[in-house]
Structure prediction request, 373 residues.
Amino acid sequence: MTRNAMLSNPAEFKLGLFSSNCSGGLAVTTAPERWDNSWANNLEMARLAERAGFDFLLPIARWIGYGGETDFQGSVLETITWATGLLAHTERINVFATIHTAFNHPVVVAKQLATMDQIGGGRAGLNLVAGWNRPEYEALGGQLPDDHETRYRFAQEWYDVIQRLWQENDPFEFDGEFWQLARTYTYPKPLVDKMPVINAAGSAQGREFAVLNADFLFTTVISLEQTAQEIAALKQKAASIGRSMGVMTLASCYCRPTEAEAQEYYRYIVDQADEGAIDNIMAIMFANAESFPKEALASLRERFAAGHGGWPLIGTPDQVADGLEQMASAGLGGTVFGFVDYIKELPYFEQEVLPRLEGKGLRLPRLGSSQVA
Prediction:
């Protein structure tokens, strides 16, 4: 079996693109140029990201939108079919499927992911979601458990089933709290010996789950100083049980030749915020999730408008590269980006920011690239 490239070169700062499968992407704005999540646009985005040397693509799994004027993320390309299509049309970039444990049978998912990995030549990944969005549970006829402990006991058992299906060759019985399976097995297996797993977690239970199971924990950044302390504690906890785990975050990027131009475009987007959608997002998160500290939510409206609460990177290519260097210095192993328009903004990021990251030693030089001092 082969090794997935996402798990190689741990010293390199990983770069991914997030939420391009959703209408609006990450910017909760009414601006007319907000992201159109058509398949054609996603395919072009993936090819641009691969050419630029991005490491991975990460989708959001949504079943209903957030309302507001734009019904933010009301149109979503389903993540397994989206990822499989992109894997078939690319050659090097890793593509993750985002899976809600509550809505997907683990035996079915194990086969789907293995099929994806076969199609992609060992480039598939799993973004595992234990659940938090109560209206989606209700839309699908389910009930979100009120306590995080139950959500993560369920997720652990779900993932245990998948790991056994991939690791064991003979049919087996599984008699758990949530799953009772008789003579179950799956073929084919993934091509890789370890498929990378992402888990976003803010609660104590979620972070415990990530330390036990994830290769990359996603966390939001309120301050880099606080994040540095959290990362050190998380990595120490993983090391204490013989594991290593990277920590990544989400960023929104507004990069222009001058700081004034970047700030002007940033203000243009946030001044056209979809206030109704932001109200709904924040209300659902406040009630059911711990992705953001509750005391910080009220101060984050502008960040939600710009990029779903992501860490803001606003300015010239030098300023954006410096911001990414500061994130790496805090212990982050990478970030996913949202752009207002991925297709229009990726080429400039590739041309101007990536060489600066190579010059800083955060990224390995790409073939034919030239470093910027």
Summary: The longest strand covers residues 246-255.
